[in-house]
Amino acid sequence: MTRKLEEIFGFPQEDSSEDEIRINNTKQAIDTSNKTLIEMDSTIDKIELALPAVRGLESSDGEMDELAAMAVKEFNNLLDLGMNVDSRYASEIFGVASQMLSHAITAKNAKITKKLKIIELQLKKARLDIDTGSDNNLPTAEGHVLDRNELLTRLLNKSVPDAPKN
């Protein structure tokens, strides 16, 4: 409860140290969340910056859109033509019209599939960079191989205040 409610209703006041602990825990959780969001945001920015680095992506997207638009336009033309001709010829015209619509759908699917593959490859590369430690932002450390006796000797020889030496 808040102090104002405690005062209004006459409840005994809680220990303020518990409130401070709760507030500190909340602040730490918020700070951790903010750091996580910042890291995620920087990762998304890296992915977005890498997308334009692929050359020819915009031109092929434009070409696929152009092909899809032409296929839809020809589908509509053939549909109108099929409605205006004799019924014995209309079935073949409608068959070709459906092929045009199929080509438009294929062009759109190819565009989407290519974008998804590029994003998948970038995510795999980022994961590989993290796994191999090639990212320069990761802290590194040096290690030494010690046996148990050498470790104990070093610990005992280390000067520790208020510790009796044997």
Structure at a glance:
The chain is mostly helical and 166 residues long. The protein contains five helices and no strands. The radius of gyration is 34 Å and the shape is elongated.
What labels describe this entry?
single chain; 166 residues; mainly alpha; 5 helices
Structure, explained:
- By secondary structure, the protein is mainly α.
- It has helices at 3-9, 16-53, 57-84, 87-132, 148-157.
Weakly predicted, low-confidence segments: none
Helix percentage: over 70%
Outline the biggest β-sheet: none
Backbone shape: elongated
Helical segment count: 5
- The structure class reads mainly alpha
Care to count the β-strands? 0
Task: Report how far apart the termini are.
Answer: 56 Å
Range of strand content:
under 5%
Lay out the secondary structure.
Layout: H1 3-9, H2 16-53, H3 57-84, H4 87-132, H5 148-157
Helix pairs in contact: 3-4
